[in-house]
Fold:
Amino acid sequence: MVRRPTRKSPASTAFPRRGHDHGRCVSDALTAAAALCAREGERLTPLRKRVLEFVWSSHQPIGAYAILDRLRTENGRAVGPPTVYRALEFLVERGLVHRLASLNAFVGCAQPGEAHIVQFLICRKCGTAAELDDARVAGALARSAAELGFRVQNQVIELSGLCSHCRQERPDEGAHAHAG
Structure:
């Protein structure tokens, strides 16, 4: 699952504590997906629903082949990669999940069905991803791009580092930002 920090919830709480119960996260995501699909006249098939459950079952991004392995284990029969990729494509197109290009993995969307510009904080130690929607970041990038005559059509920013929980375990690490 991806937690979205808001003004009421500082970024330090976007990364859940170890032992967090994902049941509510999954339940909320499925409820939102069912409502969105009903509004759009789309079907949330059992396979699409199960793929969405796998994506939301953890705060760590998950790859298509990990989903494929879980489906094969669960069903006891062969499921082909195109089947999983079609389900993921459906979920991405409806704004129910995001694809993290740097990890070639997927995470649940904290604002399903809403157009928004996304920034992700990805902890390189525990693998947790937090979704941000900071208009200041988006605006600054759009202004800089416009100065160069470029019009931004899609923006997903992925930042890697250490979350507050992992930094507490290793306070000496992550003190300096490195370009590269």
Summary: Residues 1-13 have pLDDT under 50 and may be disordered. The CA atoms of residues 160 and 180 lie 12 Å apart. The beta strands are 97-100, 105-108, 118-123, 129-132, 156-161. The two ends are 28 Å apart (CA to CA).
